[in-house]
Amino acid sequence: MQFADRMSRLGTESAFEVLVRARALEAQGRDVVHLEIGEPDFDTPQHIVEAGKEALDQGFTHYGPTAGLPEFREAIAQYVAHTRDIAVKPEQVVVTPGAKPIMFYAVLALAQAGDEVIYPNPGFPIYESVIRFVEATPVPITLREERGFSLDVEELRSLVTDRTRLIILNSPQNPTGGILPPEDLQAIAEIAVQHGIPVLADEIYSRLVYDGVCHSITAYEGMQDLAIILDGFSKTYAMTGWRLGYGVMSEALAKQMTLLAVNSNSCTATFVQRAGLAALQGPQEPVEAMLAEFRRRRDFFVAGLNDIPGLTCAMPRGAFYAFPNISEVSRSASEMADFMLQEGGVACLAGSDFGVYGEGYLRFSYANSLENLSRALERIADCVAKLRG
Ligand code: PLP
To answer: Which residues, including other chains, have CB under 8 Å from residue 131's CB and lie 6 or more apart?
Structure first.
């Protein structure tokens, strides 16, 4: 079978590959602590599960409108208006199976061969993959540890050309746990407005912020037509397997994305949307409890990493990832991640899986119990000691 050329341009998410390798080791009887996959280890709150079951009983088992059930789009519009302090109409909302399709659709709808897309590096690997897929040129903007893994606005300005069709931002950020400060968002918004460039604001971790609130670029002047918010239920409500996300954008772009959706997934499972409605309208205490637990684990795990000679780890301000600097170990990030898994029984990802500027770092998801994090720290310390000789 001969595959289309475009297939060779698609990248992947190494977390899923490492998970398979870790499971294979477990099948051989090895014990592995899983710090590779980016998902909350909590169960979906019970009232959301009940709403999903009830919806099945009520017959939400048919096709639904492509962009989402009207009552659900309305609830999302209200939620996003409230959390971002902006005006949102239901017509601006596109519901998708997980938030990932919004990323794919945004790039498909806005960029083509010869265009340029600016994206964070290190960053979620799917951005670069999709940009290459549509034959646009990926233009990385470096996130630097010394800036709290934020970007340099002047560098961003210098990367903008008349072929820039999209800027992708992610805050709170995967893999670094960094957050874009409001003054940077303001400056980025000014650049976007000046050049009329749409901004995809990947805010999937918007509720997982440890100090205060997460600011959104969408609230700055002139961004209403240019911003595309990506958010969803996977991380906030521990609903990764349900596949439920959404985008909020201009009505014109929402129509284009709906066209892409009707050409691919038709609609998002309607009983899942009903569960999402319960998530938005029901008690938010489970989200707060999860965040409090993540904070405890973050403080414990990051302190433990910093106690290991040879590692330093900046304090993540959002999401549930630690991104320690391994430059003193003098091994590549992927060699070190392999060693951790094979020799230490700790599954983690190489920073370089998130782009070239992630070299010199490892990514650990601390969405695991304190007990497992404690076991992982002992094993990581042993591995680092061995590698440093
Ligand atoms: N954006 C970022 C930065 C992510 O880390 C992820 C998932 O890991 C997603 C988007 C996709 O989320 P979903 O599971 O809703 O498709």
So the answer is: 107, 111, 117, 119, 137, 138
Backbone angles phi, psi at 237, to 5 degrees: -115, 20
Residue whose Cα lies nearest atom 5 of ligand 1: it is 174
Task: State in Å: Cα 382 to ligand 1 middle.
Answer: 32
* 99 within ligand 1 shell (Cβ under 6 A): yes
% of the chain residues with pLDDT over 70: 100
261 close to 94: Cβ distance less than 8 angstroms:
yes
In the chain, the domains with their CATH numbers are 5-44+285-388 (3.90.1150.10), 62-281 (3.40.640.10)
Strands 150-151 and 137-144: antiparallel
Task: Answer whether 270's CB lies under 8 Å from 61's CB.
Answer: yes
Phi and psi at 159, nearest 5°, equal: -85, -15
DSSP string, 131-147: HHHTTPEEEEEEEEGGG
Place of tokens 């999903």: 52
Residue 359 has pLDDT above 90, yes or no: yes
Q: Which helix (H) or strand (E) holds 365?
A: strand 362-365
- Burial degree of 198 (CB within 10 A; 0-12, 13-18, 19+): buried
Query: Distance of CA 295 to CAs 299, 301, 317, 318, 360, Å?
Result: 6, 10, 9, 9, 25
Task: Give the whole-angstrom CA distance, residue 35 versus residue 322.
Answer: 10
Ligand 1 centroid vs 321 CA: distance in angstroms? 13
H, E, C per residue of 209-229: ECCCCCCCHHHCCCCCCCEEE
308-320 pLDDT, tens digit each: 999 999 999 999 9
- pLDDT of residue 205 exceeding 90, the answer is yes
Distance 103 CA to ligand 1 centre (A): 9
Contacts of 334 by beta carbon, 8 Å cutoff, 6+ apart: 350, 352, 353
